[in-house]
Amino acid sequence: MPSAPIRVTVWGENVHEHKNETVKKIYPHGMHNVIADGLREVLGDRVVVKTATLDLPEHGLPPEVLDNTDVLTWWGHAAHGKVEDAVVERVHKRVLAGMGLLVLHSGHYSKIFKKLMGTGCGLKWREAGERERLWCVNPGHPIADGLGEYFELPHTEMYGEFFDIPQPDELVFISWFEGGEVFRSGCTWQRGKGRVFYFRPGHETFPIYYDANVRRVIANGVQWAAPTQGSPYALAAPNIKTPLSPIQSSHVADESLHEHQRKG
Amino acid sequence: MPSAPIRVTVWGENVHEHKNETVKKIYPHGMHNVIADGLREVLGDRVVVKTATLDLPEHGLPPEVLDNTDVLTWWGHAAHGKVEDAVVERVHKRVLAGMGLLVLHSGHYSKIFKKLMGTGCGLKWREAGERERLWCVNPGHPIADGLGEYFELPHTEMYGEFFDIPQPDELVFISWFEGGEVFRSGCTWQRGKGRVFYFRPGHETFPIYYDANVRRVIANGVQWAAPTQGSPYALAAPNIKTPLSPIQSSHVADESLHEHQRKG
Amino acid sequence: MPSAPIRVTVWGENVHEHKNETVKKIYPHGMHNVIADGLREVLGDRVVVKTATLDLPEHGLPPEVLDNTDVLTWWGHAAHGKVEDAVVERVHKRVLAGMGLLVLHSGHYSKIFKKLMGTGCGLKWREAGERERLWCVNPGHPIADGLGEYFELPHTEMYGEFFDIPQPDELVFISWFEGGEVFRSGCTWQRGKGRVFYFRPGHETFPIYYDANVRRVIANGVQWAAPTQGSPYALAAPNIKTPLSPIQSSHVADESLHEHQRKG
Amino acid sequence: MPSAPIRVTVWGENVHEHKNETVKKIYPHGMHNVIADGLREVLGDRVVVKTATLDLPEHGLPPEVLDNTDVLTWWGHAAHGKVEDAVVERVHKRVLAGMGLLVLHSGHYSKIFKKLMGTGCGLKWREAGERERLWCVNPGHPIADGLGEYFELPHTEMYGEFFDIPQPDELVFISWFEGGEVFRSGCTWQRGKGRVFYFRPGHETFPIYYDANVRRVIANGVQWAAPTQGSPYALAAPNIKTPLSPIQSSHVADESLHEHQRKG
């Protein structure tokens, strides 16, 4: 059974890349293209990867794009507030209907992540270019496929606890930072039929998305988040008038009231 | 150490009670007052209970009320859309800061519950006055205190799966319905520092909130959801400039870039 | 990337089939062979299925069999106590090392299931040949692939709550029984690198393992439980003498003691 | 409602204290007595604390002691294998029946913890007297009451991931170690009606159990783990012959067989 390739849309805010010289040098064609290249490198013909950015009409995410996306990856930072609510609603509905979502690094404060989590999604941060070590705490998880017990990133922005998220369904990585903090860096949640994976690394001023381990995790995450068939799901509250099994104790509310009054 | 009483605000939409003769007969002073009486009956001086309704200014939930509420209970059905977004935001922030929230019955479709869950919160339903049996699947949970293995409600509105919620942190009750469905009827989640308990029973045309077992569960839920001190929590993303431990590998982004270019 | 077929061993106690006329008629070649046939029917060349039974040396589960098993399914009932502890230990280690395990029906009381759960694993039961309806409460789960919102079994043994298990990592199915009980019928847990799926249906006096939906769930379960590569895992507590990062505050215990005495 | 004091039994292996000069100096009367003193210091008359040690008959845990224990704390290291299986069974049954259990530090490898977890419970370790910083990742949890965002221990034995436990029901603390590792240091699980809390700090050659924050966490843990009433629980599998609701589709197994044969 040769499966169809996973259709991935890599969404990038693509703002820092035009404003900051350091970022421009690291990601001359935008972070989104480097993330997309990483997926192609690791997964080959198991994926078909397209990109979309904030500046496009509907941020590059009109219904026909989302309807043909199995997994969406999201990187944003400077312009979360510029993402239109209508697009956020559309992405939200697609996730509930089964589309996978990978939220990367500063995407923790994106509208879509906050909407799916229901919490504040804040965290601590420091830009000191310090060492990070990501420890795997779930060695049987497919997102950890092919990784060691831990992997290192020599220079990163620090994210520290408390990370204001609902307790993850599965915790896959915990980061150690040289400056003294820890962080839940790889977290999964189910929302409706969709799977959500948050992965911490990725600051714009460091070449994180060229790192082989980071690319592997993102590729694993895409494969893990790709929709399965599952069973029926609907965003609705249907009235089921005909019972599946016979009801013998049924009666109308007024009788119920009388019974109550007799008792009370 | 005599604890201070738990300050409870019982919020009621209070719409059906004015429009529907059956509901008016069962709850002549509104459902919220019967829920409040139930809490006073079970918990005595361990609670101080007030009520608030949709028709009041700010729906009876101005900052000074919420700031002095330990646990809020929420019943709404016909007028979810009339609840102002500003009040929903305020309640949301208070839950994250530690206020407990009990969402009752048709409150599953309230703005505040959907915002905290991040999912669609739909379900199946049928009004046939059928028998419901709530089974305890977590006998060590304080919300099950003093209950039997199960308890029955002779005539209820049915709610059926799939209930579109994130998997509960703890599942306490599962309902059996005569007509053939099941439902996760008692579910808990942590959001920020606040605890959320969803409890299913409570249709307006049946005298559910006079039932001794239902009153016991709601009272247990209030005690469980009351805030504990915990540790610090903030809705923020602070920049921690000074590391707690010395950083030796720090360097500026440009160097990082150079290193990358040397490698790449 | 054509994956290798999943190597499944279907373990059957195979006692009732020789003692009870009803069971003999339904399963003339043993339940294990019908379960194995079901897997072959649904999964074709995606699986290679073998069987093993209690009466064989080492119950058919010597190291060379387990080492070449990706997923083991377990049905036992009358002779849990006759399963040798050494074999249980061996299976346990293989699960922690990544082998998937499907525990079926009365296997809830098997030594291996109790050892993996850490709880009593008791439940209620009734043999009245009543109707069961299994509702899916996790429509995005791969174990629910291709199923409806629910499926029915016309005549079953009832299992009722409280089912004495640790809260499942994921709850996939809840059963409704005609006689009034509910049951968490499809439950998953991770143990070490291995995945465990408990699936309720399967009483020996009803032809449950011929049912198309049951066969589909078991086949889905096998695919879900098949090992992934993951990251390193060891049943050990290694001493890591050389730190990964420099330690500056190190000192010997006696100094620590002195410091304490100065303080205390 | 003045609650009765929580009856705590502090169990200590009490072997190192007699063999190692450093340990003897730090804990001249045994670690168990210092842990007990800490509980009395923090909780005053809210607890009644007794101790028990390995060398006593039945390790100081005969039925009449366990039956009158609300919460048991467990520290062992050098002599896990000397704890009698019959005592482990007795403690296990008491936990399932509702007794709280705090497992401290090297107790991760005790028979009772492994039996309750169902996994290998291994971890990495290093004795370098390095700095540990425990971060709270669940600020609304009662076990974090009164603590800061983190607290430090200047000199500790390191425990590192992968810690081979089932994913905790709730993760409260994550440790950062100076040498580069992280660890899930405060974890909770429900087993039967009993609550289990694992708390990492406590190496015998450092005066950990005199630390004010450690004492606070253990005291919070005892309060959290104290039994609640809950609903009925039994270590049994009762046959429920009389259904709660009428069964119409009942029939004997032979008919079921015939039906199957007609179909098949």
Number of helices of chain A: 8
CATH class of the domain at 6-119 and 186-225 in chain A: Alpha Beta
* CATH architecture assignment name of the domain at 6-119 and 186-225 in chain A: 3-Layer(aba) Sandwich
Helix-strand makeup class of chain A: alpha/beta
Order of strands, main sheet of chain A, comes to 2-1-3-4-9-8-7-5-6
The share of residues in extended strands of chain A comes to 25-35%
- What is the radius of gyration of chain A computed over CA atoms, rounded to a whole number of angstroms? 22 Å
Q: Could you name the CATH topology of the domain at 6-119 and 186-225 in chain A?
A: Rossmann fold
Kindly report the average pLDDT value of chain A.
Answer: 94
Biggest β-sheet of chain A: count, sense, barrel?
Answer: 9 strands, mixed
C-alpha geometry of chain A: globular
Largest interchain contact: C-D, 69 and 69 residues
Oligomer: homotetramer
Range of helix content of chain A = 25-40%
**Unreliable parts of chain A:** 255-264
Give an account of the 3D structure:
4 copies of one chain form a homotetramer. The first copy, chain A, has 264 residues and is an alpha/beta fold. Chain A has a domain at 6-119 and 186-225: Class I glutamine amidotransferase (GATase) domain (Rossmann fold, 3-Layer(aba) Sandwich), CATH 3.40.50. Chain A is built from 8 helices and 9 strands. The first copy, chain A, has helices at residues 16-19, 21-26, 31-43, 63-66, 85-96, 111-117, 212-225, 253-263; strands spanning 6-12, 47-53, 71-75, 100-104, 124-136, 150-160, 170-177, 182-191, 194-199. In chain A, strands 2-1-3-4-9-8-7-5-6 form a 9-stranded mixed beta sheet. The longest helix of chain A is centred in the last third of the chain and has 14 residues, at 212-225. Chain A is globular. In chain A, 59% of the residues are buried. Mean pLDDT of chain A is 94; it is low at 255-264. Chains in contact: A-B, A-C, A-D, B-C, B-D, C-D. The interface between B and C is medium-sized, with 24 and 24 residues.
